[in-house]
Amino acid sequence: MGISVRAAEPGDVPALVRLRLANAERHVRLDRTVYRVPDGERVREHFEEVLADEPGVVILVAESSGDVVGMVEVVPRAEPPDHQILVPRRSAEIHTVVLEGHRGEGIGTALVSAAERAAAERGIRLLYAGVFAPNEEAARFYSSAGFEPRGILLSRDSGAHRSIDPAGAGAGRPAPA
């Protein structure tokens, strides 16, 4: 069985939508408080826009036996502005998806390798794979591809979803129910 990786084309949009939605459904099973299944029409529009005129974003697909069974997106990140302390380095986020029935066949590895080459050709020095804690399989996959921890991302719920006292009497605390 041969695996080929190539740049995504407009005709791949239905396969890209299928991959994104399958990936979303899998992630929702991991933790529905973190992940969601997006609207398929919005996903289609996204891929059509990116493939038509989104400079810098790279989408590659993997084919096995003539079927698109995986994809990788390389999405450039903005460089830190001059007033920030980080050394400017071109970087990008990487998002890899392989259909369930094709995992363990080397498809993800082939996609990441191709994404690294595409990033290097564009002067991108760092690739970030954002993996949330419940996705241990993704963390193992990216670690096996040479990705390493780079700092710690901490988060906290801002409480923006709670009702806030509009008069300000609560000094920013949630209003009593």
UniProtKB/TrEMBL annotation:
MF GO annotations: acyltransferase activity, transferring groups other than amino-acyl groups
Protein keywords: Acyltransferase, Transferase
Pfam families in the cross-refs: Acetyltransf_1
UniProt domain N-acetyltransferase: residue ranges: 3-168
InterPro entries membership: Acyl_CoA_acyltransferase, Bact_Acetyltransf, GNAT_dom
CDD domains: NAT_SF
Transferase as UniProt keyword: yes
Alphabetized PROSITE patterns for the sequence: GNAT (PS51186)
Transmembrane segments: none
UniProt KW Iron-sulfur keyword: no
Protein name: GNAT family N-acetyltransferase
Lineage start: Bacteria, Bacillati, Actinomycetota, Actinomycetes, Kitasatosporales
